[in-house]
Design goal:
Layout: H1 4-30, H2 32-41, H3 47-67, H4 71-89, H5 98-124, H6 131-135
Length: 143
C-alpha cells in the first residue's frame, strides 16, 4: 500500500473506528456509576478494575486511533477488547425475550465486525497520515 489514496482511506477508517470508542469512553466517564452498575448486572468479574480499564481503553484508544500512534499493537488490543465486550455485554444466548435477543445478536456481530476492522488495521498499519507514518523511515514501504 504505497499509493497516497491508501493512507487517506486508512485515516478515514481510523476516524470511523475512533468515533465509536471516543463516544463510548466519554459516555462511560459521564455516567460512570451507571456503567459500574451495568457491569455488576452482567456479572463482570473485578468491576473495580474492569470499569476504569474499559473507560481508558475506549477514550485513550479512540484518541490514539485518530492520531495514528502505535496503531499495530493498539489494533490488537482493540480487537481483543471488542470481542470481549461482545461476549460479556451482548450475550444473546442468555436472553429469552425474542426482541431483545434479536437486538443482542445484531450488537454481538457488529462487535465481531469491528474487531475484524481492527485486525485489518493491524495488517495495514496507520498509513502515512499519522504519527506512526511521520516517524517511519522514508526509504521503503510506509504503511
Amino acid at each position: 500500500m504505497t499509493r497516497p489514496v491508501d493512507s487517506g482511506v486508512i485515516l478515514i477508517a481510523r476516524i470511523a473506528l475512533a468515533v465509536l470508542f471516543l463516544w463510548g469512553g466519554v459516555m462511560k466517564l459521564l455516567g460512570y456509576a451507571g456503567f459500574v452498575s451495568y457491569l455488576h448486572s452482567k456479572g463482570v468479574p473485578f468491576v473495580q478494575v474492569a470499569a476504569p480499564l474499559a473507560t481508558a481503553v475506549e477514550a485513550l484508544g479512540g484518541l490514539l486511533l485518530i492520531f495514528g500512534f502505535k496503531i499495530r499493537p493498539l489494533a490488537l488490543i482493540m480487537a481483543v477488547y471488542t470481542v470481549a465486550t461482545a461476549v460479556l455485554g451482548h450475550d444473546f444466548w442468555n436472553v429469552t425475550d425474542p426482541a431483545m435477543q434479536r437486538d443482542m445478536v445484531i450488537h454481538f456481530w457488529k462487535n465481531i465486525g469491528i474487531a475484524g476492522g481492527f485486525l485489518l488495521l493491524f495488517v495495514t498499519g496507520a498509513g502515512r497520515i499519522s504519527i506512526d507514518g511521520a516517524r517511519a523511515p522514508r526509504g521503503g514501504l510506509n504503511l
